[in-house]
Amino acid sequence: MTKNTQQPVHDALFKQFLTHPENARDFFAVHLPANILPLCDLSTLRLEPASFVEHRLRQLHSDVLYSVQTTEGEGYIYCLIEHQSKPDRLMGFRLMHYAMSAIAHHLKKSPADKTLPLVVPFLFYQGSVCPYPYSMNWLDGFADPALAQQLYTRSFPLVDLSVLSDEEILTHKGVALLELVQKHIRTRDGLMAVLPIIAQIINSQHNTVDQVRSVIEYIAYQGYILDESRFFSQLIALSPEYKTMLTTIAEQLEQKGIEKGIEKGIEKGREEGIEVGIEKGRTEALIAMTRSLLQQGVDLNIIMQCTGLTREKIESLKH
Prior knowledge:
alpha+beta; 4 strands; double-stranded DNA endonuclease activity
């Protein structure tokens, strides 16, 4: 019998036993780590259906996946068993991948949960090479395990704009404009307050003309600016090199109906005229800005964040 025909037989026998909760309960009672076993109420052991794993990951899915309630109140621990007859140098990573997939699906299934479930990965090995030759610690799969441990067992780097001072942001060169504007974009007239710093960054020429244009359009259509005309006139005075661009954007604001929509609504004495004019202007302006960002190759997720448009709407503007 060839190896290719043997493997399905090994898998079938494995699943015949481990897919039965009674057998699985005995397995976990023996093999669960000593610090995890007391947390598991094995009487609640439940075999999870194949649909637990997302369709696109099913080719990588674990052989058997059980959920079990904890003995310390509400919560779940998942026990994942992978059957293997040939050693795999990156098995630790594969098990971690399966564990993360199980956690992600649990959160999708139970969005109200506030904490992550534990997933205990097992490798059930019965190959001819003895003992199993590779590490089960996924961090050992990296060229520098010590560095990987430092990175993946500590808090990840956080760039929190809310705690960065404007003075510190000013030293960030090519990303200073992005950081400063996004820090103040939601603050009432906050961009007007930092207008001199915006001009200083623009004049430093750390950014391309297209990047400056995109930021100014972002400010125009997403910023909380009480007097847009004053904002643009002062920015033009501080950054005369960009006068043509800034003037064009300011004119587009008016042409797109933001100002005209308000005036028309007041003249007619109809409040809805103001809202319709503003909404129409903002929509058309957002579409124009989105097309500009697409042409520059900006990532879709960034465009979604900047414009508030759906992925489907952005995709439709590609053509």
